[in-house]
Amino acid sequence: MNLHMNYIGGQWVPAQGGETFESRNPARPSEVLGVFQRSTNADVDAAMAAARAAQPGWADTPAPQRGLILDRVADLLEERRDDIARTIVREMGKVYAEANGFDIQAAINTARVMVGEGRRLLGQTVPSELRNKFAMVVREPIGVVGAITPWNLPILLPSWKIFPALLCGNTVVFKPAEDTPLTGIKLLEVLIDAGVPEGVVNLITGYGAEVGERFVTHPKVDMISFTGSVPTGRTIASLAGGELKKVSLELGSKNAVVVMDDAEFDLAIEGCLWGGYGTSGQRCTAGSRVVVHEAIYDRFLDAFTARVEALRLGDGLDEGSQVGPLVNAKQLDRVASYIGVGEAEGARRITGGRKLDHEMGGYFFEPTLFTNVEPTMRIAQEEIFGPVVSLLKANSFKHAIEVANATDYGLSFGIYTQDVNRVFAAIRGLHTGVVNVNSPTMGVEIGVPFGGVKNSGNGLRESGTASIDEFTELKSVMVDYSGVHRRTGVNEAATRT
Ligand code: NAD
């Protein structure tokens, strides 16, 4: 049995309470991947103290040198990508191609972008209002960053936080999700082997509900960067608010894809299929609502149903598998509960709807499609986080945009159309942080910021250069080299020299 430790101040150490927990393969729950430390508040204290002690020295390390360590991180992720991808598949169930091609590739891309940022970390110079005065803005680290992440993108999401946080001169305490501790440890090993100094990055495993409050309110943590569900996000925001800690929240969504009557039909079917059912729908960007123009609705329903029914479920390490299991038994039950919810409200289940744990041995759920869905129904409003897609009907472009926007969320929406006027009207009209035109909602390019509006986040952005703003403070500096004390207002003083 592989027993794994916390990593604090450069040492692998057991949790002080002596408790552990297991991580299991959702495709084969009898398979235990390892045993992990069930941390308590005492471990949070130790990790925060280590991060605090290491922070001044790390901030003093020139940014280009910090970047060079991330270059090595990218190289090691390349070298170990097969092993890490297999770990992701075995720990949370997505298919190998997604783990390798998206999760790990995004982490590599993030590290490479950060290498370049180490040679930029751009501030600003601004023209002073006064003669013989110089004004500029410089970036400074925030201090100690606490990173809390979910299990669904267990390499990408920690990388989006840890790499830029480190590059900007912060030290980090990382708590991976309780469903993916081994993947978190593999990432830590990469950082350690790349040369991140002792105390600069620390890891504690365990349950958010047990260590979360101490983690978020700890006197030595300056910022919490959180990705996860809305309820946890609310808890974290209110705890952090009480202590006036900086907090970044990337939360859930109920994304919509509009398919207009002029859409390239096969492209739209393909995009909605993978946007809705990829990673078994367990993505914050999943296109779980498809809003189809009435002129093509019936044809779309037939073609889409055929594709959904042909999806091949299986262990993500088997080459033929297209859709893996859900992450755990609780998630399986939660997704299954929405079938009754939808039917009770009058939606029509066209295909799917069954748990397949008995037949397949893992937490598999049939890809499911609902039609006759009204925008106000719970299955159109709540994030199910499973392979369940709702089709909604729209009678015009304007109506389709209204239906898409009829949600408390706004993360990653899309439209399929060949009409350039509709493209730009949709870009303006969709109330969301990310718009995808003629491509699935899932995924984002490293060059553009990622984040949502409404309940999908609190306004900061991650991915690529945008994350520099998340992990730095701006310091304004004014240097008066006139030698004159300017007593009164800016304008008066400006005329005096
Ligand atoms: P979750 O909120 O249950 O857990 C996320 C993390 O928070 C875990 O590490 C967990 O241990 C920790 N946590 C739980 N309770 C806590 C508490 N009281 N204090 C501090 N930490 C606590 O979410 P989940 O079920 O693991 O992940 C799925 C959710 O994440 C979905 O809603 C999904 O949309 C969202 N998500 C958002 C993005 C994004 O970028 N916007 C990306 C991926 C996933």
Summarize the structure.
By secondary structure, this protein is α/β, with parallel strands linked by helices. 40% of the residues lie in helices and 21% in strands. Strand 1 and strand 2 (11-13) form a beta hairpin.
Description:
The chain has 497 residues and is of the alpha/beta class. The protein has two domains: 6-251 and 457-476, Aldehyde Dehydrogenase, Chain A, domain 1 (3-Layer(aba) Sandwich), CATH 3.40.605.10; 256-437, Aldehyde Dehydrogenase, Chain A, domain 2 (3-Layer(aba) Sandwich), CATH 3.40.309.10. It has helices spanning 41-60, 63-79, 81-92, 96-117, 156-167, 181-194, 208-217, 230-242, 265-277, 297-309, 329-344, 357-360, 378-381, 397-405, 420-429, 467-470, 490-496; strands spanning 6-8, 11-13, 20-25, 28-37, 124-126, 133-141, 144-148, 171-175, 201-203, 223-227, 246-250, 256-259, 289-293, 348-351, 368-371, 388-394, 409-410, 412-416, 434-437, 453-454, 472-480. The strands form six sheets. A seven-stranded mixed β-sheet has the order 14-15-16-13-12-18-19, sandwiched between helices. It has a five-stranded parallel β-sheet with strand order 9-8-7-10-11, sandwiched between helices. It has a three-stranded antiparallel β-sheet with strand order 5-6-21. A hairpin with a 2-residue loop joins strand 1 and strand 2 (11-13). It is globular, with a radius of gyration of 24 Å. The N and C termini lie far apart (76 Å). Bound molecules: nicotinamide-adenine-dinucleotide. Nicotinamide-adenine-dinucleotide binds next to helix 7 and helix 8.
